[in-house]
Amino acid sequence: MLDKKTGQAPAPSQGSNTRGMKGLSDRMVGWIFIAPTIFLLLAINIFPLIWTIRLSLTNYRANRTNAEVKWLGLRNYERILTDPDIWNAMQATAHFVFWTLTLQVLIGFTLAYLINKKFKGNDLWTTIIVLPMMLSPAVVGNFWTFLYQPQIGLFNYFIGFLTGADPSSFSMIGDVALAPWSIVIVDTWMWTPFVMLICLAGLRSIPDSIYEAAECDRASKWRQFWTITIPMALPFLMLAVLFRGIENFKMFDLVVQLTGGGPGSITELTSINLKREAFEKWRTGYASAYAVILFVTVFGLASIYVKALNKVKER
Amino acid sequence: MSFSVTQPSTRQKWFAGVLVTGYALLTILPLLWIIATGFKSPSDAIAYPPKVVFEPTVEGYVNLFTTRTRMSPDALAELGPPQTWYDKIVRQYDMVISGPSRYGERFLNSVIIGFGSTFLSIFLGTLAAYGFSRFRVPLKDDLMFFILSTRMMPPIAVAIPIFLMFRQLGLSDTHLGMILLYTAVNLSLSVWLLKGFIDEIPVEYEEAALIDGYTRFQAFYKVVLPQAATGIASTAIFCLIFSWNEYAFAVLLTSGTAQTAPPFIPTIIGVGKDWPAVAAGATLFLVPVMVFTVLLRKHLLRGITFGAVRK
Q1: Among A46, B43, B156, B272, which has the highest number of CB atoms less than 10 A from its own CB?
Q2: Fold category of B104-304 in CATH
Q3: pTM greater than 0.80
Q4: Contact (CB<8Å) B292/A134
């Protein structure tokens, strides 16, 4: 499992001399294999990143290429950090990330725990549960707007059926109070299987002998759950949270198609907000600074988290 | 006594089975609803209460692939009887087919860009993964982490300079531009996954081949590649699914010639609120991925975690 940091490569064939290599050293050959990938990533990832940083210090506008470009220094950054719109977007994102993670961890872990009981047909049901997460979020988001229609939507009908409310009396994506939950629901529907799969791998990695030993010591099932199951599955659970956290912080496609950031700007997550600044208002310089801030935030949070994850693993 | 403390009891199994089955049925319902809606007539699609039993029709699919114009009954009468089965369907609504819709083109774009970028990212990814797996590369861990970190950037953040760069190079709205871009995005996945697969192949095979007089490249080509075939195939499917599903870059960087299906499908709805056509478009687009998911189920966990969790 988790071999992220250890990078355990099997002993490189150092000893086997470079027969038939026409004078190329092993190290050179290694570089020949790797260079094209690094080159492409530099061209399409790092070069643009540096360009973004440069643009972020100017007032450049991509739709007015002839206008004079002024050097602004850190003024863009200053403006962004004091812009209430952007703090609203950050808050919407925080709400979205927090609730999707919470729900997905709870439901995903529960499902994994139940599937691990190895009842008949669990493979079939696991495969079915997994289906939504592989689908195109934009297309799925678009279709959920249909399920969320008041009156005719299947979701509203279902809720109406369960609670007795009139299906046309509420609109999940039109109501300011409900819209933030509408995106949480779809994301949870889509990505719970992701957490479930990883948790399942964690549960399956716990050797039976530990439970047998606990049973000999007359530990109750409840105690076994909290002192064996949870701690041993925790690194897996944390890994799932890392992946989902990064993905949901960047969330764009699903929510754009589902609510478009509305009503008003209630569900305008940072990525959607950024897209507006960059490709609708065309404030390229300003948006670049925004992009840099977002990237630094993701990267920083992820690094801190990975440190914590490694600590848990070492225990 | 064959009783085991770690075996769940029959009652527990039964309980777990019921709950999981219930969840699975609930979760599959929206997907079945998409497929069903594709075969409904527009009035059935928006019926209240939602119709579970309906008369299936392929109207949605006809509307998906065609553009139609409304005609007066007199003009229709002049045209004579409908020539084909799809003409017949459209005539019910006093319309005639005026041409093919853009869906076919967009779908084809998705196929071209998907396969093109998958091929490239597997080609480059296999080479790099082999390099990382078998050679002492300076700064190996840092380079691997750098490759992974390219996946952490929000697509919109990368899209600003890519947009400018593509405009400068004439790559905006071209297949080549999208293929290169998706290749770069997929490389992180393909290098990480393939390195894991290649790490699992014992080095001894190649060493034997080298002693037999193979060159490094021959050993890679004739010994490692066949051994890694399953891994390469499943990695390729993951790359293909990613390119197939991608929306953010597609919607910002393509508008016509190279536009893929995900940004196009939501526009089908148009003013007519033609839900069956949208559902038909979504069905054709989503079902291949569902099939691949079922085929991939053994490698799914590994793929979605970039190889961090293996079974």
Answers
A1: B156
A2: MetI-like fold (1.10.3720)
A3: yes
A4: yes
